[in-house]
Structure formats: structure tokens, C-alpha cells
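Incident review: delayed structure delivery

Summary: a single-chain prediction request sat in the queue longer than the usual turnaround. Root cause was a stuck worker, restarted by the on-call engineer. No data loss occurred. The affected request and its eventual output are reproduced below so the record is complete for anyone auditing the incident later.

Affected input:
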Amino acid sequence: MRPPTRRRRRGGDDEAATAIEKAARARWSTWERPEWIGLAVQAFYAAGSTG
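Output delivered after worker restart:
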């Protein structure tokens, strides 16, 4: 697992989401709407926490 995923499994949702968003913005700096990255990460975690 990658480090942000490990943090998520330990309960560090906010920390992991921030790390993932930062990494995605750095990797794909030309995305037209980068503000959606954080929302997508939060939605992904929310969907995973219901099951």
C-alpha cells in the first residue's frame, strides 16, 4: 500500500486526503478543475466507510 492509504487505515482520514490531494495536484498540474480532487478523495473515503 502507498503511504496515504496506510494513514487512512490507521484512521487519519484528513491527513491522508490532504496527502493524496497534494500528490495529485503535483502529478497532474494541468488539470482544468483541480479543486475537485479533494472532493473526490472525500467522496471515495465516505463510500468506503459505509461498508
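Verification: The longest helix spans residues 13-27.
Action items: add queue-age alerting; document worker restart procedure.
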